[in-house]
Amino acid sequence: MKLKPVAYLEKGEFPLEEGEALRLYRAMRRARFFDEKAVTLQRQGRLGVYPPFMGQEAAQVGVALALGEGDWVVPSYRESAMLLARGLPIHVLILYWRAHPAGWGFPEGVRVVNPYIPIATQIPQAVGLALAGRYRGEDWVVATSIGDGGTSEGDFHEGLNFAAVFQAPVVFLVQNNGYAISVPRAKQMRVDYIARRAEGYGMPGVVVDGNDAFAVYLEAKKAVERARRGEGPTLLEALTYRLAPHTTSDDPTRYRTREEEEAWRRKDPILRLRKALEERGLWDEERERALLEELEEEFARELALADQAPEPRPEEIVEHVYKEMGPDQRRAYEALRRGLHVEEAW
Amino acid sequence: MVAEKTRLLNMVQAINEALDLALSRDGRVLVFGEDVGRLGGVFRVTEGLQAKHGESRVFDTPLAESGILGMAIGLAMGGMRPVAEIQFAGFLYPALDQILSHLGRWRHRSRGRVGLPVVVRAPYGGGVHTPEQHADSPEAILAHAPGVKVVIPSSPERAKGLLLSAIEDEDPVFFLEAIKLYRSARAPVPEGYYTLPLGKARVVRQGKAATLIGYGGMVEVMLEAAEVAAREGVEVMVVDLETLVPLDEDTLLEAVRETGRAVVVYEAMRTGGFGAEVAARIAEGAIDHLEAPVLRVAGYDAPYPPFSAIEDLYRPNARRVLAALRKVLTY
């Protein structure tokens, strides 16, 4: 079977309505703006370790915007763009990456789950969440995301098999950015396309140019509609590249060349989409400037909100471990609340 | 609340009855795992449940423990109340990532917003000559996972009420069922729906000379030893912990303070086993009352042997418990 990545932009095609295309662009630009600010905040010591997604905006936003209001996103840790596109407030995301408890419990009404740090463990959970919707008579679809490296984990295989067996309404997005930290795709697997594996589970597999927002969005829409019709899961592989390090602690010059990065920089998903919009007279320098001003203001507002979050209380250590504290949590809670360690309160 | 009428049931029947009642009572309850549907489970614990409640409520899954636990987590996140069966507790290991990284953490990670009312049932322990891995007792690994509860019943009547409590509980509960007790005895079990509180230890035999502490399959071993001791005129107390997490330290310490001598009995590997936790708690909370060191009777620091001839040496029995008792009584 020959797989060929679905693509529109490089062929000069414009398959979307103008409003939809602009919506995609704004969401991608907003995500990029956040990503750049987040890296700066980390350098200033105002954010913890942060995993940038620069270069993967089309893959993430394309899938996020293809979802309906009642649908869910179960992300991995690099999916900040997906979360923002789904409506997660920026200050909550900042607090999450500050490892502040106020960033842990995502607000009501935004159907996103916390980022997952362990690799691939979200995959079978996304299947369960999708099936819960079916039991409840709700038609929510779950989009879950993973990197190319994550597809080597057992949970990826177990989860996809479960999804196919139970015909769960899930869209599995693989953001194939070529590297599992430093290990290139070629050392992870012997298949050309990860989407090829879909056949082995009994579900459709689709490859898209992951830096082409139109391609991701339209294929994701098809997968979401298929899932909602009760026709089961889809494996969607987006071929992309992270233009930034794995995290703010990583040094990609140790494992990739400047030439490779430059080649991908020319395929920057935001520049590509902007060019297509400009060619149709839908975007220009002035609109870009206005958007950036708007984003600057929004970010300043949200950062201020994040900065206002109170310091965590010591007793939060043992809160919410169980619905009701057991005797051990209770004892520690009382001590911590009095400003003591539990040994001091004996 | 214990109903008046009782019938003689073994533990398999009692647990089956609890699952049946839970499925009937709450449409969110789902029972799934390997072979639990058509076959009714390799121990027949889920027998008849699929026929009665339908394939969407009681169903077989692919053979994949991490997938089962992961799916259970997602189902609970979405508002269901999954009761997953892992065919043997020794097969839980592929699912440990889901348990340690997620199942016990979600409530804390979401600041109380998302609790996971998942029950994981698994047969555990030895005594029936199973192949390798089938007799493991991984309760200490589970007890070490923050955010989960660990319950181990020791009789049909306790199993039914505790399982119904576990299913009602808003937090994840591991419900370990001693294989040895599944069909070894029938006992009176109340009819209808009743629950027994989690987090309570109970004194199952009174005595002043020493306290034996254990749970699950070891309760009958301790009672046997106590019986022998009684014939020699030594009355020992027997405590069934029943819930390891959260641990009922008050009952435990009170029982030890009363006798001043304690032996902890568990069939898992000795080092780092749950009995080590019990011994540490006694040292922390009742050292002034002790007349002798706390002794452990446990499995050996080796894998549980699959060979029947030596299995009986690995698994604590009344003779070993009596030897330890003699030591603490003559210290």
TrEMBL record, chain A:
Its cofactor is thiamine diphosphate. It catalyses: N(6)-[(R)-lipoyl]-L-lysyl-[protein] + pyruvate + H(+) = N(6)-[(R)-S(8)-acetyldihydrolipoyl]-L-lysyl-[protein] + CO2. Its EC number is 1.2.4.1. Keywords: Oxidoreductase, Pyruvate, Thiamine pyrophosphate. It comes from the Bacteria. One of its GO terms (molecular function) is pyruvate dehydrogenase (acetyl-transferring) activity. It is an enzyme of class 1 (oxidoreductase). Heterodimer of an alpha and a beta chain. This is Pyruvate dehydrogenase E1 component subunit alpha. It comes from Thermus aquaticus. The gene is pdhA.
From TrEMBL, chain B:
Gene3D superfamilies: 3.40.50.920, 3.40.50.970. It comes from Thermus aquaticus. Keywords: Oxidoreductase, Pyruvate, Thiamine pyrophosphate. The keyword Oxidoreductase applies. It comes from the Bacteria. Heterotetramer of two alpha and two beta chains. Directly associated with ODBA in the E1 complex. Its EC number is 1.2.4.1. InterPro entries: THDP-binding (IPR029061), Transketo_C/PFOR_II (IPR009014), Transketolase-like_Pyr-bd (IPR005475), Transketolase_C (IPR033248). Its cofactor is thiamine diphosphate. The gene is pdhB. Coiled coil: none annotated. One of its GO terms (molecular function) is pyruvate dehydrogenase (acetyl-transferring) activity. Signal peptide: none annotated. This is Pyruvate dehydrogenase E1 component subunit beta. Residues 9-184 form the Transketolase-like pyrimidine-binding domain. The keyword ATP-binding does not apply.
